[in-house]
Amino acid sequence: MVKQARAQITRDAIILGAAKAFDRQGYGMASIADIAAEASVTKGALYFHFQSKDEIAHAVIEQQHDRSFSAGAAIIEEGLPAIETMIRLCASLAEQLVTDPIVQAGIRLTTDVSNFERPVADPYEDWLRTFETLTARGIEEGDIVATLDPAMIAHFIIPSFTGVQLVSETLAGRTDLLQRVREMWTILLPAFVPADRYDALKDLPQLVPTTPAAPAS
Amino acid sequence: MVKQARAQITRDAIILGAAKAFDRQGYGMASIADIAAEASVTKGALYFHFQSKDEIAHAVIEQQHDRSFSAGAAIIEEGLPAIETMIRLCASLAEQLVTDPIVQAGIRLTTDVSNFERPVADPYEDWLRTFETLTARGIEEGDIVATLDPAMIAHFIIPSFTGVQLVSETLAGRTDLLQRVREMWTILLPAFVPADRYDALKDLPQLVPTTPAAPAS
């Protein structure tokens, strides 16, 4: 048991080291030696857990998506109205992107299409399904215009969020990300919400904080 | 003169070869030898024009942005209403992304943040300025809600388009890109257009064709 726990600690240290090395040097330039040094483990210990840089990168993406998606699941379980849940999900991922180096690295590895032979699609599919379900529920709850197609809405919100965080990273090192996500929902709300519900819902974008609530993990 | 023209032809062939090599192998994996082979030039000829892969990549981005931005300038010069111009600009870039290998490679090099030491920001800045100006004109023309902030709108449209094309590439090899850009404007129009102008403008998203008009260059 102690041995297993120690192995898990080493594996997590390698994943965090890889996240930092990828962030500083880019995936292409970071070597296995760089990752081992960043994680303070020997190359031997690293190769005990991972066979290649590609495998480490996929472990970073997996851990990032686990963190982001389980934070999302906790929000969904609160049972709030769907439109509020959607905004809180975007706020949660934006906060993780500002504070958590593994989330930063995992999302960047996902959006840098050239890194892998096949682009990483599963995280998008998970979020698309989630937002399609939420949009359908938002229509039932009367908070989203009934003529809108839930799949179409999901296929716009998820890519939009993807682009907003990418451009924020590129132009501002993500310093304006929370503000941009709040603006995103300020712009989208009149497009989604029926006119007679707008006054009741128009302050929802303020659910996106302008400074992150959670400290870096 | 002949010599100069021949040098330009070689340079263009290298840029096109690099675009294809980056597309197939990714920027990180494509070697100078791969690019020379794809361009059917010798490595010596390649090094006469470019000192490094990094320099070639920036030339690809520059040529892509020139093509995309000059196609955009031609649309702006038509003097159409601003809201229509904005939709046509998105349609034009989407069509280039479906048909033109240099545009495909240039955009991917721009969005793959890890490729370069400093992320590529200039193309975003050019498009942000353009869309901010157009949004301000759209407000003057009465087609965009006067309370919306042009900078905020531009800072949402450009990232949204960036994400829509990125996710379309990742999930569908861009086969659904034109449809997704049309849907983007179908969703955004009610958010931007004053209620009393909506009926007159609601068919504008159909300006985005669902099959590309221009053949590959």
Name the features.
homodimer; 217 residues; 2 domains; 73% helix; elongated
Work out the radius of gyration of chain A: 19 Å
Strand content of chain A: under 5%
CATH topology of the largest domain in chain A: Tetracycline Repressor, domain 2
Shape of chain A: elongated
Number of strands of chain A: 0
Tally of structural domains of chain A: 2
* Helical residues, percent of chain A: over 70%
**Helix-strand category of chain A:** mainly alpha
Q: Greatest contact pair?
A: A-B, 43 and 43 residues
Reported CATH architecture of the largest domain in chain A: Orthogonal Bundle
CATH domain class name of the largest domain in chain A: Mainly Alpha
Structure description:
Two copies of one chain form a homodimer. Chain A has helices spanning 2-25, 32-39, 43-49, 53-77, 82-99, 101-111, 122-140, 150-172, 177-192, 195-201. Chain A is mainly alpha-helical. Chain A has two domains: 1-51, Homeodomain-like (Arc Repressor Mutant, subunit A), CATH 1.10.10; 53-207, Tetracycline Repressor, domain 2, CATH 1.10.357. Chain A starts with a helix and ends in a 16-residue tail after the last helix. At the A-B interface, α8 and α9 of A face α8 and α9 of B.
SSE blueprint:
The structure is a homodimer of 217-residue chains.
Chain A: H1 2-25, H2 32-39, H3 43-49, H4 53-77, H5 82-99, H6 101-111, H7 122-140, H8 150-172, H9 177-192, H10 195-201
Helix pairs in contact in A: 1-2, 1-4, 1-6, 4-5, 4-6, 5-6, 5-7, 5-9, 7-8, 8-9
Summary?
Chain A contains ten helices and no strands. Chain A has 217 residues and is mainly alpha-helical.
